[in-house]
Structures are given as C-alpha cells and as structure tokens.
C-alpha cells in the first residue's frame, strides 16, 4: 500500500530504505481516487519508533492511505522533541469537527495506574466517545485496547502478578470473521504488559466477540459493534528488536525482568531475536483496512457515521 505522509517526516527515509512504498504529496494529489483518512493517536513515549512500527504495518495493501498523527494536549510527552510534535502532530481540538475512515489508538506505559488516574484520561475519554460518530472503525492496541474496553463497554483490567513479556502462540476462532481471514491455525504475537482482561467479562457482553486468543496471554482480538471497535491486546506492530530494548531498559533500571519468552534463539539474550510474527501482523492490518474501513466507510466523509 502506498502510505501518504509528510514529505519531511524523519522516518520517511528509513521506510524507503526498507523498500516500503511511501507516496509523496504531489503524486497522491494526481491520482484520481479518494485515499483513506487514518488518524493515529500516538500515546507511546518514543513517538518516532511507534510511527515507524505502525507505518510498516500499514504498508501492505493496494489502498492509498493518508496518515495523520494526533497527540494529547492535556499531557506533553517528555521523550519527544516539541519541534517534532508541533510539525507532525495535530491535537483533538484541531480535528474534532472532522471525520475519519479509521483511527488507531496506541498503547501507553501507564497500565499500572487506574484509568481515571492517568493525567490525560478525560481527554482520551472524550476522543473515544467522538470516535462513535466521527470514525468508521477504530483499532485499539494493548493499553489502548484496555482503555477502550473500559470506556465503551465497562470491561475492567486486572493485574497479572508479573509482566507478560515474549512472543506467544495464539489461535483464531470464529474463522469466518473477516478480521482473521487468511490466518494460519496458529500464529505468534509479541506481548508486553502487566495487566489483562478476563475472557468471562468479555463473553458476558453481547456486543463483544473474541476472534483470537492465547492459552497463556488470553483474549487477543476482540470485535465490538460489528467492527466499529477492534481491540488488539498485544503488539503485532513491534519491530524485531523492541522486546529486546524493553528487556535491556528494565535491566538497566534494576527491575530484574524475566527473559522474554520464545523470543531469542535458544532463549539466550546474547543471541538475536527470532522474528516470527510479521506475516500475521501484515495480514491483520490489511484485513482491518480492507474489511472494516475501506468496505464500510462512506465515500463522502462529511456525512455522519452511524452506529
């Protein structure tokens, strides 16, 4: 897929070096099609690393996609340059009257806090309410999935006891669901979190459906409102070295973390990680864009999106 981003976004060169099709603005304007409008609310502290990971994941269908990055206004990231945020990010206040084909809400390193204790929770709650009428389909990732399940459906998160870190086997269920079309009988997903959601809480809500899960990591893909809300409890977008970086960061902090499971060759942190999830990740994002955004969105985005 050609992804259309600002010509001078810093991660653009790395994407092109990886042979990812990035369309410049002049070429995009010349094409006589309407591109999909996708807004990404980036709550992760390392903004550029998350940009790169998500843009990789969104680059594998024939659809043209315009990417807009959003940041919170009530909390300013301490790990991203203000100049980068000012140049490449918008705030909710700037776009609250606009409509989007799709939205991605990322995870955030605040999962040990109660939702209402998070500094930007009122703003995030307002944005999630806005998606009901202004976005065709919203994809929530990791903590973003927990936040969305709580805000929209009252599903509470719970502490796991210790960090779930590694790459785990997951299984599709409800195989006729378009989101998991093309999935193998089992597939691998990176997980990195201290909290989770309970299967029984999700199954008790008739508006939610689990379509993939893990015996160890629990529910993974959850669909709400027929695809208007999609929740991804893991990190399919992770780069090959992301879990390694998190592991070494925690070591440096003296946390004494467990070695990420099923990740390094021979479970040895001195060996290279094994990339075992990229094909599944590409299929997941392509299915979301095709079946839940492109096939469902109105051609004229100014029309109100109905539930």
Helix content: 25-40%
Principal-axes geometry comes out as: globular
For the CA atoms, what is the radius of gyration?
19 Å
Structural class: alpha/beta
Predict the CATH topology.
Rossmann fold
What is the average of the pLDDT values? 90
Main beta sheet: 12 strands, mixed
End-to-end C-alpha gap = 28 Å
Order of helices and strands: EHEHEHEHEHEHEHEEHEEEHH
Q: In the CATH hierarchy, what is the superfamily?
A: Class I glutamine amidotransferase (GATase) domain
What is the CATH class designation?
A: Alpha Beta
Count of DSSP-assigned helices: 10
Q: How many discrete structural domains?
A: 1
Structure description:
This protein has 307 residues and is of the alpha/beta class. The protein has a single domain, classed as Class I glutamine amidotransferase (GATase) domain (Rossmann fold, 3-Layer(aba) Sandwich), CATH 3.40.50. Helix content is 30%, strand content 24%. It contains 10 helices and 12 strands. Strands 1, 2, 3, 4, 5, 6, 7, 8, 9, 10, 11 and 12 form a 12-stranded mixed β-sheet that branches. β3, α3 and β4 form a beta-alpha-beta unit. The radius of gyration is 19 Å and the shape is globular.
Quick summary of this structure?
The chain is of the alpha/beta class and 307 residues long. Helix content is 30%, strand content 24%. Strands 1, 2, 3, 4, 5, 6, 7, 8, 9, 10, 11 and 12 form a twelve-stranded mixed β-sheet that branches.
Helix and strand arrangement:
Layout: E1 3-4, H1 12-17, E2 22-23, H2 25-30, E3 36-41, H3 47-57, E4 65-70, H4 82-88, E5 89-90, H5 92-95, E6 100-105, H6 121-134, E7 135-141, H7 143-153, E8 158-172, E9 187-196, H8 199-203, E10 208-214, E11 218-224, E12 229-232, H9 242-252, H10 278-294
Parallel strand pairs: 1-2, 1-4, 3-4, 3-6, 4-5, 6-7, 7-12
Antiparallel strand pairs: 8-9, 8-10, 10-11, 11-12
């Amino acid at each position: 897929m050609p992804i259309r981003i600002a010509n001078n976004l810093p991660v653009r060169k790395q994407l092109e070096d990886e042979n990812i099709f990035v369309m410049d603005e002049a070429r995009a304007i010349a094409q006589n099609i309407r591109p999909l409008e996708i807004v990404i609310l980036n709550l992760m502290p390392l903004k550029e690393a998350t940009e790169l990971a998500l843009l990789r994941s969104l680059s594998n269908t024939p659809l043209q996609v315009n990417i807009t990055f959003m940041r919170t206004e009530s909390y300013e990231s301490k790990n991203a340059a203000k100049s980068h945020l000012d140049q490449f990010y918008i705030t909710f206040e700037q776009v609250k009257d606009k409509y989007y084909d799709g939205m991605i809400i990322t995870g955030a390193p605040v999962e040990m806090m109660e939702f209402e204790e998070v500094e930007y929770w009122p703003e995030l709650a307002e944005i999630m309410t806005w998606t009901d009428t202004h976005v065709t389909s919203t994809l929530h990732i990791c903590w973003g999935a927990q936040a969305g399940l709580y805000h929209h459906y009252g599903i509470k998160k719970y502490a796991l006891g210790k960090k779930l870190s590694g790459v785990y086997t997951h299984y599709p269920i409800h195989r006729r669901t378009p989101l998991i079309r093309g999935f193998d009988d089992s597939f691998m997903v990176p997980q990195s979190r201290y909290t989770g959601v309970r299967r029984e809480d999700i199954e008790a809500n008739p508006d939610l459906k689990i379509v993939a899960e893990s015996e160890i990591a629990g529910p993974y893909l959850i669909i709400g409102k027929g695809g208007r809300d999609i929740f991804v409890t893991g990190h399919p977008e992770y780069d090959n070295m992301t879990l390694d970086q998190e592991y070494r960061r925690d070591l440096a902090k003296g946390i004494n973390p467990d070695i990420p499971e099923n990740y390094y060759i021979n479970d040895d942190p001195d060996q290279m990680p094994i990339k075992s999830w990229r094909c599944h990740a590409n299929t997941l994002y392509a299915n979301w864009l095709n079946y839940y955004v492109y096939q469902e969105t109105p051609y004229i985005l100014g029309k109100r999106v109905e539930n």
